[in-house]
Specification:
four-stranded mixed beta sheet, 34% strand, 76 residues
Length: 76
């Protein structure tokens, strides 16, 4: 099943050490279904997949604490 949305060309921080930073992710029904290189994630795209170009922007995991000090997070 193809993802609903893919995000490409980013600096995406993952909490899983094996994938500390990746360039792309695929999302299906609101859940991450794949992380990896642009080429790996592009191979999952179908005619119904929305493609979002992050243009090198950084993506961080969701933070639920509204009182955070984002400047304390180290981003490559």
């Amino acid at each position: 099943m193809a993802p609903d949305t893919v995000y490409l060309n980013g600096q995406i921080y993952c909490v899983v050490p094996r994938y500390r930073y990746v360039k792309a992710v695929a999302v299906k029904e609101g859940k991450f279904v794949a992380v990896g290189s642009n080429a790996e994630i592009k191979s999952l795209i179908s005619q119904t997949t929305e493609v979002v170009d992050l243009k090198g922007k950084t993506v961080l995991p969701g933070m639920h604490d509204m009182h955070i000090h984002a400047y304390l997070f180290h981003v490559k």
